[in-house]
Design a protein that fits this description.
The protein is α+β, with helices and mostly antiparallel strands and about 400 residues long. Helix content is about 50%, strand content about 15%. The protein has 3 domains: about 130 residues, Orthogonal Bundle (Butyryl-Coa Dehydrogenase, subunit A, domain 1); about 120 residues, Butyryl-CoA Dehydrogenase, subunit A, domain 2, CATH 2.40.110.10; about 150 residues, Butyryl-CoA Dehydrogenase, subunit A, domain 3 (Up-down Bundle), CATH 1.20.140. α6 runs antiparallel to α8, α8 runs antiparallel to α9 and α9 packs antiparallel against α10. The longest helix is centred in the last third of the chain and has 38 residues. It is globular, with a radius of gyration of 22 Å. The site of flavin-adenine dinucleotide (FAD) has 20 residues, from β1, β3 and α12.
């Protein structure tokens, strides 16, 4: 694949129209944290039939699983990223409000994907379907105040076995959708009296409002304001094994729990490339006319070679990131999954490219670039987090190099 198909172009235009009509008029409220993004996201799902497609895809998959077939046809995207209908809304929404994509991606791409990959059929029906259709909002909680990049090694949240129940304790931070999530994937270590380094990593599904679970207000942050980020506090939350993903601890022997979380890392890293593409495209859309219109020294600034260099570098970044996105689409269509190292390489490059392009866009706009009215300052603030969440740049480097040296 080297260009968007006609069908893609149609989807793209339709999403663009939706963004202009339903998102752009609310940009101020979304970007000041006055409006949570969920109702607009639900409208997006309804408008494009994404809710009914997700429901139908889910029902087909469950029917297959109930019939004993756990394989999955290549064309049947169960909300795990990849298809054009998934990536184009990401790209177009990112041109206006990237935080909305973060909120949507974590819910549909991470929370539901965890349940779909590790849960029992009963758990999938109970929690994943509603998240996939956007009826409910999911959060995926691994990061803690003292455990970020070293997510497993430093993890302090625990599950203790008490008779037929588990008792969950700990704090999570920087959790996307944390303040408003209906369904939370809580990742912790099983305390069986063994040393923390040897403990199994286990995952539970929690519902908002459970006794002992507190969801904080949104945290103030640098950008991505339309994506509410918060803390979770668990104080002896008692759950039955119906909330343990997989419903049996046998499912977590060896490194299985860690590997399940790593599969989730791959999904989120490919989504970041699509986000980066949307932000880069928007920067170019804003910068090219500005370079033609803004006159200094009696001529448009686009005549200056230093400005041309900025534009040219933006275009190189756009082409490269677009090609990475095309590769994701091709692999998804062929039923192939990206490996962790390749997803890391894609994420590292795309995140750095988006941040660099957005900062250069601010520079190209001069003083206007620093003013909220001209949009590029928001893109620069929003792009920066692509280098931090879903694994920092430095962690992507370690994953890529580890695979090369293995
Ligand atoms: C807006 C936002 C949304 C988020 N959403 C979620 C979410 O929904 N769920 C969730 O669980 N988490 C979420 N996170 C957390 C995010 O994944 C972590 O912030 C990230 O993994 C980095 O962890 P940390 O912040 O603890 O930084 P640290 O791990 O403390 O890193 C600090 C610095 O040290 C560097 N560093 C660390 N280890 C190494 C190493 N081995 N080699 C070289 N350098 C190293 C890092 O790269 C970084 O530069 C979110 C974060 C943000 C900002």
């Amino acid at each position: 694949m080297f260009e968007w198909s006609e069908e893609h172009q149609m989807i793209r235009q339709a999403v663009r129209d939706f963004v202009d009509k339903e998102v752009r008029p609310h940009r101020e409220e979304l970007e000041h944290g006055d409006l949570a993004p969920y109702d607009i996201l639900r409208k997006l799902y309804k408008t494009f039939g994404m809710d009914s497609m997700a429901a139908a895809s889910f029902d087909r998959r469950i029917a297959r699983e109930e019939a004993g077939d756990t394989g999955r046809p290549a064309s049947d995207s169960d909300g795990e990223g990849g298809g054009g209908m998934t990536l184009l809304p990401i790209i177009e929404l990112c041109k206006c409000s990237p935080g909305m994509v973060t909120a949507m991606g974590v819910s549909v791409g991470l929370a539901s994907a965890s349940i779909m990959s590790k849960g029992t059929i009963a758990q999938k029906k109970r929690w994943a379907r509603d998240i996939l259709t956007m009826d409910k909002i999911g959060a995926w909680a691994i990061t803690e105040p003292n455990s970020g990049s070293d997510a497993f090694g430093s993890m302090q949240s625990t599950a203790r076995i008490d008779g037929d129940e588990f008792v969950l304790s700990g704090s999570k931070t920087f959790i996307t959708n944390g303040p408003y999530a209906d369904t939370i994937i809580f990742i912790c270590k099983l305390d069986e009296g063994n040393p923390p380094a040897e403990r199994r990593v286990v995952q539970f599904v929690l519902d908002s409002g459970m006794p002992g679970l507190e969801q904080s207000k949104p945290l103030r942050k640098m950008g991505m304001h339309s994506s509410p980020t918060g803390m979770l506090f668990l104080d002896d939350v008692r759950v039955g094994k119906d909330r343990l993903l997989g419903e049996s601890l046998d499912a977590y022997s060896g490194k299985v729990g860690r590997d399940a979380s790593k599969a989730t890392f791959t999904i989120e890293r490919t989504g970041v490339a699509a986000m980066a593409l949307g932000m880069i495209e928007r920067c170019i859309e804003l910068c090219v006319p500005y370079a033609k219109e803004r006159v200094q020294f009696g001529q448009p600034i686009g005549n200056f070679q230093l400005i041309q260099l900025k534009l040219a570098k933006m275009e190189v970044a756009r082409l490269n990131v677009e090609n990475l996105v095309f590769r994701t689409l091709e692999m998804s269509a062929a039923g192939k999954a990206l490996g962790l190292a390749e997803a890391s390489a894609m994420k590292l490059y795309s995140a750095q490219a988006a941040t660099e392009v957005a900062l250069e866009a601010v520079q190209l706009f001069g003083g206007n670039g620093y003013m909220a009215e001209y949009e590029v300052e928001q893109l620069a603030r929003d792009a920066k987090v692509l280098q931090i969440y879903a694994g920092t740049d430095e962690i992507q480097v370690t994953h890529i190099a580890k695979a090369m040296l293995a």
